[in-house]
């Protein structure tokens, strides 16, 4: 999808339904000499619902600023929320980890191969274990130890490190609960991987509980983080078949592969601006 | 798996672990001129656990009675529970339905093609809707209307109809909760299909709740019925991918296909004596 | 998706890429007081490729004729091929079968529940086996016996029965190869189910060949019929895990479930105008 | 599955069917004070077929030598082929790679976490690209350049490096065809990953051909290498859903994840002695 002379851009829009909105937006882009490459849209109700749209288009670099200015005007008329991004400007992703490395390594591997085209300005951890491997990829690693008493300070420190440096955060098996204060800084911009098929097994030790319940499939769920534990908008889920021979430990091992697959997929979609949030749900424009 | 002169039989065994148990049982069968065709076994712990075994074997029809007698002796020495079945004697399955026909029709279709080799002596329903279609297959249909007040009587009537006629019961989207008294008559012999990926969405209206939660996969679960609603031993589960375009009604429609697939699979395994129950879990010898 | 006073319609378009085409079409619909509900589009190359679009919209019944007339004009300017359908006018589907009933019964079941909203004016078969069951649903059944020598006559007879009565044909495990002459009457309007994961096992006896090759998954493929056997545009495929315990006969039994699932899905998409053909490939607007 | 005082061992057996074989073997093990933990068996025909068995058992380290000696005798009576392995003695795996790193990295990651409990004495490549990353894990890397003319020499060099050092070889996207001479040294001991769902797209460029054919699922196949290209016994296969939006390049990227999953699974089973080869097919005792 490389463009020689132009700039590939993506526009996300949410607004109340209104007749003619699609042609209004496509006309707007045509007038700004933008060539639409891909268009996706969804509505909760074609008459009275909420409207969601994603448009990918080619546009000359010099006209994108003008387009952005004019969008402000258009948005007012339609009570739109909108987000414009360009491929030129890569998104910046912070990764939070604890001790487990599988999700981290999957993200790093997909970053290295450019399958997930992001920058990774830093990794933050409450443990030192993964410092060496992360730094071997030239990525700064910040070890911020954390106890119950120091949590507030630790989060403050993290916020300072992140400030102005990142566009979103991935919790790659980060085993700490973030405070509402922290989360409020990154609304719908923190992606967590939960090691169960939510809403089954919300909370701690899902694999042990899955083992005790005798389920025949285990799963993983990637979701945006909200103040309600494991209740945020789900981006992606997948499952893996297991059987009675699996111990709780075997579930954990097998589950790692679902976790990294699901998290990497969710991060890809987020980076490609394919996710829109509507209340506690997501619209994914695949 | 047809045998010309013999009788294909299946033996299921559960007992506490004890060294040499496998060779004891295989010797026992060899001594009874049984030719082992398939053997499966599982243990919760090779030293102190519970041992489970399934053996499929060919044996002359005239020796099976002697084999059965001798098994009683063997079982005492090992504190075994055991179940012996022969292919000659087909299992008898009652089906309970309400108004939805998809699970019922799937079972009937697989019964007609002999993919599920059972007899169906009767179908019982709290509604009359499916009477005609069931009877068109030559299967007796009993309509037992049921209100809160008449539930006890209705169950009593059903028990009388079933008595001595069936080996197990399938609730093919039967929308009534059975009483502990009824269930006690068919311990681990009632299979239910729940229209969610348990333990997510226990109870009523799982599709509406799945819709509201914004999950990306919906599922179905076949399980043995116990007194705890939707908490019985899980036999089979499966899922289907959905997306933001699905309404709650669409989930219901898409879910029907997972339900019938999952229920039919569970019934197949039950009929082929491939399921052993251990507490609240199942061992499936596929 | 019911509309009270209006008519829900779907427009499919294929044409060479041209800047502004999306806004042209959306403007055209807006001018005809059509309210766009869903829009999907695809391009093989945003500058020099072929452009494909599907638009679902609400429109007053009385304006649809005018819209259709004006589309002819628009189409000329853009060298468009286009297809307009309305929900009011259900598609008419003929089913061809031989002896196996599983795909037929799946289609009939989904037709009865209105999951696949079509009319079925007739079923044609080279055998009499399924006459009774088909007629029990009130669907006319034509038994046209067929030998090598009578094939031409038989096809001629079928064409006469179909003439003016059906919009597309489904080969639901019809075990005869249609002549190029027959196919030319229903270009991209005949859907076949092949019982393998194409292009593996093109031709006869795919399950036996899958068994001999020792594959670990079997599959089924629904495709439009062309003159090249099993080479037509693929609409849908799916697979099922098997193992070394499966005999060739077991593969056949297990495969039936994939076949009916895959065929029913392909027919659904065709009926909902979600399939566009591009050379030997399909675009599916899910 | 750790054993404190004993040694966990696995016995694989292939022989012609003979009545009583299972009890013979289980008795044999009981006499050698071996505690059977898991038993799996398969037969191509219970009377005249080939019999396959896998037994996992605990045994004292000092008795295993005697057991091995006595097995030679038993094997004669039954025309058995057999393989005995112990968990104490880890298998040694060589990896062959070219330039692509995804399969290599997956194996290394699962080796590091001990999910695949092997030793990796060396990696051999016809390119130097992956030298640094492999050596960073402390694994020796041998770069053996290879042209058409030097192939024989190169293979000879590789054979010398491997001699006495490895138990099996994994071709982790090694883009060279091995000679029959090389293969004869490692009969059923070379695992290859082919980037298609075999037997579809045998040979070169499967993703381009999958793209041109318009398939709706792409796959990967792990198999033992024989002299017939891509025709060896299949160990594992899996697929991934794609759609019309995928370019040939996208298929390649998406396919990488199936490839590493399928290859890692096949290697796991091989390492755990869960694979038996029968002609051109495999029996997998999961």
- Approximate helicity band of chain A: 25-40%
User: Radius of gyration of chain A in whole Å, from Cα?
Assistant: 21 Å
- The CATH topology of the largest domain in chain A corresponds to Rossmann fold
Mean pLDDT of chain A, to the nearest integer, reads 94
- Judged by helices, strands and strand pairing, the structural class of chain A is alpha/beta
Based on CA inertia axes, which overall geometry of chain A fits?
globular
CATH architecture of the largest domain in chain A: 3-Layer(aba) Sandwich
**Quaternary status:** homotetramer
Give the CATH class of the largest domain in chain A. Answer: Alpha Beta
* Strands ordered across the widest β-sheet of chain A: 7-6-5-8-9-10-11
Largest interface chains and counts: C-D, 30 and 29 residues
CATH superfamily of the largest domain in chain A: Formyl transferase, N-terminal domain
Low-pLDDT ranges of chain A? none
- H/E series of chain A, N to C? EHEEHEEHEHEHEHEHEEHEE
Termini distance of chain A?
A: 15 Å
How are the secondary structure elements laid out?
The structure is a homotetramer of 286-residue chains.
Chain A: E1 6-16, H1 21-31, E2 35-43, E3 50-60, H2 64-78, E4 81-86, E5 91-97, H3 102-112, E6 118-125, H4 131-135, E7 141-143, H5 151-162, E8 168-171, H6 180-184, E9 190-194, H7 206-213, E10 217-224, E11 234-241, H8 248-271, E12 275-278, E13 281-284
Parallel strand pairs in A: 5-6, 5-8, 6-7, 8-9
Antiparallel strand pairs in A: 1-3, 1-4, 2-3, 9-10, 10-11, 12-13
